[in-house]
Write a structure and sequence with these properties.
By secondary structure, this protein is α/β, with parallel strands linked by helices. It has 3 domains: 192 residues, FAD/NAD(P)-binding domain, CATH 3.50.50.60; 118 residues, FAD/NAD(P)-binding domain; 81 residues, Enolase-like, domain 1. Helices cover 24% and strands 31% of the residues. Strands 1, 2, 5, 6, 7, 8 and 21 form a 7-stranded mixed sheet that branches. Strand 14 and strand 15 form a beta hairpin. Helix 1 packs parallel to helix 6. The N and C termini lie far apart (60 Å). The structure holds dihydroflavine-adenine dinucleotide. The site of dihydroflavine-adenine dinucleotide has 37 residues, from helix 1, helix 6 and strand 24.
Amino acid sequence: MAKTFKYLILGGGVAAGYAAWEFARQGLEPGELAIISKEAVAPYERTALSKFYLDPELPNRLPTLYVFPRREILLPEWYSEKGIELILSTEIVKADLAAKSLTSAGGETFSYQILLIATGLTVIRLSDLGVQGADAKNIFYFREIDDADKLYEAIKAKKNGKAVVVGGGYISMELSARLRCNNLDVTMVYPEPWCMSRLFTSDIAAFNEGYYAKKGVNIMKRTVVVGFTANSDGEVKEVKLKDGRVLEADIVVVGDGLRPQTALFKGQVEEEKGGIKTDGFFKTSVPNVYAVGDVATFPVKLYNELRRVEYYEHACLSARKAVEAIIAAEEGKTVEEYDYLPLFYSHAFEQPWCFIGDNVGDTVLFGDSSPESSFPKFGSYWIKDGKVVGAFLQGRIDEERDAMEYVARVRPSVQNVDELAREGFSFARKI
Ligand code: FDA
């Protein structure tokens, strides 16, 4: 017999937690909502995994989810108090959207009136790409709490050992910093000419690479990992690079290489740009099925185009918007369409940074971007068609963040780029 729910959320990540919170806020009867997750724990702050969760000083504090703007903390008990069923350690292996039915690996079936797909991303394994020796022990991937726990144990077991981080994206950067803070000898390897190359300009990257070097992280760019060797216990021992170099390693972490988890729905729902296509209320092409968070490709009103983003804030906001739209539709009301301003942040060593808006066009750098400074603080604007369309800020960013958000949203005209570089943060403050 299928277990039946009025609302079913598939996925137990950030978007699922926020959606549950919004359902509860709108008024929910006990037993109406369930979350199905293959993870063993309630939704938690996934972004913390590569940050404080691996901190050598602080004890583990997950699973918790901090819901803004009310700063409410969702612990597992919160779900039972609200009558929300958490169906954990349950992987859905079959979805029949026409029949409104999901089937788990254990053979249980679940049916629903309304489904929210919040399956996020999955890692691409080097073994799937045919990289030689990639199934050795102590090669880690990093997406879920289970991955973080395994890495944490390895860090303890390989004290003062050598770690190689594969990839130059933000997760690789955060993990490299954490491994270094745990006293490992860390080398990052990536093929691009600089780190975070999809977002960072060469100037922003120069600061970050310089800062990492100062902290003792080795960086090897413009090369890729082609294989691994293992010791007699099957543990990784060496990393072989395409340029012929060989690195010793006790731990390898693959920080990059993710794809949206859409496989369950192939051929049943419209897709676009690798994700599940939605409208501005996160409705998919199938009636009563919504998609939110990293897996959704949705219209960004501000830029008049469909995009899929892998950002925490969007996971929260999209989940809340979808639930508002679901409830409004039931009550015969309407809600405003999603009006998203891209915002992404990261934090490694003691350096927070934040990007807001669009990274297209020319750029200007301003502020103190020397890795040798005691208190570096700098930013960059992106300028397209004579307007400031995006902003990046690094260092103590809290003071300027609101002003930068405003700039990225209103996209003010700029007459003189040299003047803009001289004004820097004060340009945003006076808009
Ligand atoms: P999310 O990945 O959170 O959840 C998906 C859930 O679906 C998981 O619980 C998964 O197990 C489950 N699932 C998938 N398929 C399933 C199936 N078939 N059956 C059952 N369950 C299934 N962003 C940012 O803006 N700033 C930052 O600093 C960071 N930092 C960061 C660090 C790390 C380590 C990661 C992995 C990610 C970030 N992010 C980030 C990105 C951010 O965490 C991400 O955008 C959100 O978690 C997306 O939320 P979702 O709910 O869409 O997916």
